[in-house]
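Lab notebook, bench 4. We co-purified these components, and the gel suggests they stay together. Before we commit to crystallization screens, I want a quick structural picture of the whole thing.
Request: model the full complex, all chains together.
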Amino acid sequence: MKNIIVIGAGVAGLTAAICCAAKGHRVCVLEQGTTAGGVSTSWERKGFHFEGGIHWLVGSTPGMRRLHRRWKAVGALSENNPIVFKDPVYVYRCGDVELNLWRDLSKVEKEMIDFAPQDSKAIRRFCRDIRLTRAFFCTVRSASDLMRRLVQVPAFIAALPRIISRTSAEYSSMFSNLHLRRLTTSLIDPSQNAISLVYTMACYSIGDNGYPEGGSTRIVRNMLEKALSLGVRIKYRSKVEKVCVEDGKVKGVRCGEEFYDADDVIVATDTAKAVSTMFDKPIAEKWVERLKRFSEPQTCMFLSLGVEDPLEGHHSSLRIFPEESLELAGLKHDCLWTTIYHDKTGYAAEGSSCITVILFGDSYDYWKKAKEDGTYREKKQEVTDAVIAELEKHLPEIKGKIKVTDLATPLTYERYSLTHRGAWMSMWHKGERPMSIPKTCSSIKGLHFAGFRTHLSGGLPVALNSGFKSASGV
Ligand SMILES: Cc1cc2nc3c(=O)[nH]c(=O)nc-3n(C[C@H](O)[C@H](O)[C@H](O)COP(=O)(O)OP(=O)(O)OC[C@H]3O[C@@H](n4cnc5c(N)ncnc54)[C@H](O)[C@@H]3O)c2cc1C
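Here is the predicted assembly.
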């Protein structure tokens, strides 16, 4: 039995802890915050419950068999969080135009061609890219299914350079129709590599990417229960400053006045930050250089609104495009990535609802400066007011009925997760090959890394897989 220290109780850290404990090791998780889950989180304000993490889960169905098995193995998916499947995935709104992004690819193809027949060729190519990607990544169902897919592999390999060499926004520029471009770019952060867009669509189209009821809270609570049942100890308010290394082997970690000795340490925090701050001597391995190239954060501003109106009749996921771009926190925003949680979903009292809006982009420097010159609160109010004014054009029922507002900035994410610039995923640049770090560090025995930074471009599946991978090296 080994003594294992896991740093960080996010989804990656909890996964690593569960896997190590299941192998019979003694595991202690040190978490700087007061709760588990990291950025996969939700919070309460005056009777409203705001989901601030999961919007869809890759591996929520057996269509992504390996991931699904893993979510079940760590207890994240259980009977208490059945999966909800949105269809359409979201509704695009701009002026009088309304378009749906369906799960069924033939429906997507038809709706897009009916709307913009001049783009038929590009639409067919878009759907073909998704079908090829699907054939490559999703669970094989039978021998004949395998044969069919093998035939598609050369076509997928041929299409890959075209996809991977573009950002999601550039890839969508194959459509001449503005609304189709916007419909497709607004699935994920438009600066991410286009493969993330095609992969996400592929997962939707096989019936995956569901939303487990209860969202982040229930997933994390389930994982915590599993960890505790296996004897994992979790210490909150325990910020690790240093991983101590002697003669090329980890000895333990320093956390305030305390020293915890360990045979193995799993660092499940922002890896790009940890390699340069948690060690007396920087880790000089090849993968570290490559990792640092990808430390540009995916982050956002996140606005939560508690509304005394049921907002009936609206789809729960809307992509709202203002007639003119909004200038917010020094960045131009073309899309309000909006989710409505109606009263029936348990997020608000009867007759009320919650709205959350993601505003993608790295506005960290803007907010840092505002903090320094004392205008942080005032500027938060400005952004909140501007977004509400735009929302009211599309959801007029909310006028005068907003009871709670709460804006998180990249500084908020930094404070709660201690990640570099408040990152919660990494930016996968166009033209870059996939990046994944090794499960053990070759220059320091007993040292492992897990977390969203360990594989491009991050997210919950990476947190999960990296937790498994790090534990397999123990
Ligand atoms: C608004 C939003 C929406 C998202 N939507 C989705 C989605 O729909 N699907 C999806 O797959 N992903 C989504 N994500 C991304 C996903 O939530 C994250 O990528 C994932 O949760 C990261 O998990 P992690 O364990 O790697 O890191 P984190 O959650 O950052 O966990 C790291 C933990 O380590 C702790 N820590 C840091 N430093 C120290 C230290 N020195 N000592 C002790 N503890 C420390 C932190 O407090 C934190 O608890 C979303 C994220 C956000 C913010």
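The longest strand covers residues 300-307. Worth comparing against the SEC data before the next meeting. Residues 342 and 353 are 5 Å apart (CA to CA).
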